[in-house]
Amino acid sequence: xxxxxxxxxxxxxxxxxGKTQLSVLQDFSLDVEVGExxxxxxxxxxGKSTALNILGTLDHPDSGELIxxxxxxxxxxxxxxxxxxxGDIGFVFQFHHLLPEFTAIENIxxxxxxxxxxxxxxxxxxxxxxxxxxxxxxxxxxxLSGGExxxxxxxxxxxxxxxxxxxxxxxxNLDEKNANKLIDLLSEINKDFHQAIxxxxxxxxxxxxxxxQFNLENGSLTEKA
Length: 225
Ligand SMILES: Nc1ncnc2c1ncn2[C@@H]1O[C@H](COP(=O)(O)OP(=O)(O)O)[C@@H](O)[C@H]1O
Ligand SMILES: [Mg+2]
Prior knowledge:
The protein is an alpha/beta fold. It contains seven helices and ten strands. The chain has helices at residues 48-55, 78-87, 104-115, 121-130, 146-158, 176-193, 204-207, and strands at residues 4-17, 20-33, 37-41, 63-68, 71-72, 89-92, 164-168, 196-201, 212-217, 220-223.
């Protein structure tokens, strides 16, 4: 067994809408080892985003435990947690959340501004080249196609060389060609940098890149045989 970077144990999460309680995650457990690609397939509303937000410490579970780098998250101070969130985890969201008033390269450099690293420009240029975006680096998000925006978002997630990439339906609004291109890139990145990737999707084609493939149903995961 490889080195464990993230463990979720019996996570439960529900939302209350006034009187009714909606149970979204129920005994959700997942182990993520260094360098592995894990895909989570689930229908819309099955709790994929809720799960990834909790795995990325952007949201709190009602119960259960999250262990990051061998340490229980709920025992960490907020500043320790923020450092892990910014340094060890890269997020790729379905709608990419690029900042419209910044160019592609500026968006990619953004995480390093937060961490105060100065020597990041060359690394950003390398990533831009790897993503096939060299001639688009000074374009604003509105001047990029959906596929290009998604690749900018991946480059941004990679900037701090995180141990773990959390990608929430990254191909969700891409056509098949761009979806395949993004998936190929993520596989390549995983081979080159050995980053672990947890990716959600509702597309079986996309799910196939997982070394381990799970279904999210009734709030918990079952591994595909
Ligand atoms: N903040 C919230 N308050 C209430 N209900 C929510 C909230 N966020 C998500 N939900 C509900 O939880 C369920 C799971 O949502 P989500 O995790 O976004 O699913 P998915 O990403 O698989 O589409 C959905 O029924 C959704 O409506
Ligand atoms: Mg979602």
